[in-house]
Amino acid sequence: MKPADSVTLVPYLHGKLAFAQHVRDLCLKTKFDCIAVDLPCCLQEHLFDAVHDLPHISAVVAFDNRDPAYYAPADPCDASIEAIRQSRQNHVPCFCIGSPVLYGPRTVPPTPDEFAMGELGFEAYASMCLRVIEAAPAPWKSGDPDLDGLLTQHHELCAQFTAHRLLGLAPEYKNILGLVHFGIFARTVFHFGRERTCNLSFDKPPAYNITREFVNPDHLYFALGELPFITGKFERERYDPFSPRIDVVETVKDLFTETRDEYAGGQSNAVPLSPARIQRALTFLRNLTVADARFVPALVDIVAAAKGVGGNSYALQILGNAKYYPYLPFERGGPLLSVGIDKIQLSGEAPVRRAVNLFRDAALVWRTLSIKPDPSKLAKRKYRFAWDPAGACSHVPEDGRIERFNAHLREKALKILSEDRAQSEKFTVSVKDGIDIRETMRNWFTHDIYVKEVPPSRGKVDTVVIIFDGDHDGKYPHCATWYAEHGEESTLTFYATDPHADLIGPGIARSYYGGLSLLFPPRIVPDVFSLSNLPDLRTLAERLVYGALLFSQETAVPFVSAKRPGVRLAALGRTFKKRLIWVPLSTFSMETIRRLRRFHVLNGKVVRSWAARFIGE
Is-contact 560 464, C-beta < 8 A? Predict the structure, then answer.
């Protein structure tokens, strides 16, 4: 907007990346000889120093003997800070033209999501925001007539002071870029066009104690408008001329993928997160965001979506990365400012001050999200010392899951046996069990149609072998046989990781199968890993298959593995006059395999009453 030939006014909101990018684009397209921002003029010199120290983020704090204190962080994603940076880069003068009387916060009613700026353009979006702000009641209305009147008066004085300073700069410069906050934009334009604004006089402002300190990196989330992760990406973009333009939504996607890579590489028991799982998390996040009438997600929704697909550990990793800012001020050796919601603590001060963030347009509120962090090393040590070696049992939901998979594999094996005995013949009067497409295409030149006949399956399947990992026996020291608690469970023989190495709760140990065999209906059989008269078997997988072939009463034994049974396993099958039916492990999804491999050992049946509180899905 141009209220005068030499003045271009741009409305903005604090802490929004889209406005900072718009200011930078304006300065790249148009040559301004002066930049004015409606920040308090009493903070001008300290704010310029704070901008000079970027990308290390500091805050200017102003206080007196009364509460509250006021602080303005040098937020790289804030349009006013970007304007000051542009003035320094382009070597043009910059002025803070806001009222020197600190009062606030200068909150605004909820405005349209800034994501719409990319679709509508800045002019249309700003027009919508102005309509919303003008139509809504003043956000500071508290119901107290005296307080509301004082705030309204201060709001009007801020607009008058800003317009007065703009009018004072207009004769001196030919092309001025003025940034005025949405909260006072309409009133500033109104006063700018009035003749008496030039002749206004203002009372002497109060004297503030003003200091500048670097913000504690752990508290940047409370000081910045965007997530520290997004702010860090924006800062890196400045130093790479070939970097693509930062988009908030796309950067949130980068948060998920980059955290997935770090998470998978840094933890041995990390949940494998495929691109499909990440996409489901992003879809869930989109639904949560749209349900709140927004397009740009909030941190609590990001963490909730991460927990839904990756569990508590992945959600905690997402939370830590979202709040991480890569440019740390520790090498400067200066004091650090502690920041919270409406509170700050200056370095060297014991009391916590009530404070107002001058760059905060909407109030921050605490939100509750249930996340169970992994226990500390000290807690795991306590769990280990309290473990009773005489008690061990399984987790009931996991028993049901493995039994359902066992039933599915037995049915699949019988179907494979029937298809192996299928016969093809030329079509005469009946299609029998269907047209054999493969045989028909093979004999296409004869113009004959072939049909197949699948005989009914014979026999049963009572033993199933599943090999998740047959090449790393050193990772699986825990070998055991668990007997069924009732007639609907199988006799389970397995080799797995050491459960005592991963205690996640009182009496709860987590382990991962390397391989297992299930015998149903259940019978009492000896533990094959403890037998001393076994033949020369090299691996745990061979010992497991040997026991399955030895104790199975049926001819067919389903064998689920990533690779076909080798020569040694095939020879074992011929020794027992039994057949291993190979079912490729790749026919099942990674999610199914992950859920099957993980199991928990409970230190007695009494632990089942609280196990679900520590065991996530």
Answer: yes
- Distance between CA atoms of residues 41 and 540, nearest Å: 75
Least confident stretch, 33-37, 226-230, 377-381, 556-560: 377-381
Give pTM, 2 decimals.
Answer: 0.75
Q: Identity (one letter) of the amino acid at 28?
A: L
Tokens of 124: 């249309």
Distance CA 37, CA 178 (A): 6
Stretch among 70-74, 108-112, 196-200, 563-567 having the lowest mean pLDDT: 196-200
Q: In one letter, which amino acid is 515? A: G
| pLDDT grade for 85, boundaries at 50, 70 and 90 | very high
Q: How far apart are CA 540 and CA 471, in angstroms?
A: 9
Q: Is 459 exposed, middle or buried (0-12, 13-18, 19+ CB in 10 A)?
A: exposed
Residue 338, Cα to own-chain centre: how many angstroms? 25
Q: Judge contact between 466 and 558, C-beta under 8 A.
A: no
The answer to whether the CB of 376 falls within 8 A of the CB of 367 is no
- One-character DSSP codes across 118-172: HHH-HHHHHHHHHHHHHHSPPTT--S-HHHHHHHHHHHHHHHHHHHHHHHHHTTT
C-alpha span between 386 and 389 (Å, rounded) = 9
Residue 298 and residue 366 in contact, taking contact as beta carbons nearer than 8 Å: no
Counting beta carbons within 10 angstroms of the beta carbon of residue 453, is it exposed (0 to 12), middle (13 to 18) or buried (19 or more)?
A: middle
Distances, alpha carbon 348 to alpha carbons 334, 338, 491, 501, in Å:
12, 11, 65, 43
Cα–Cα distance for residue pair 506/503, rounded to 1 Å: 8
The fraction of the chain above a pLDDT of 90, given in percent, is: 24
Per the structure block, which two tokens stand in for 452?
Answer: 């197949």
Distance CA 361, CA 224 (A): 11
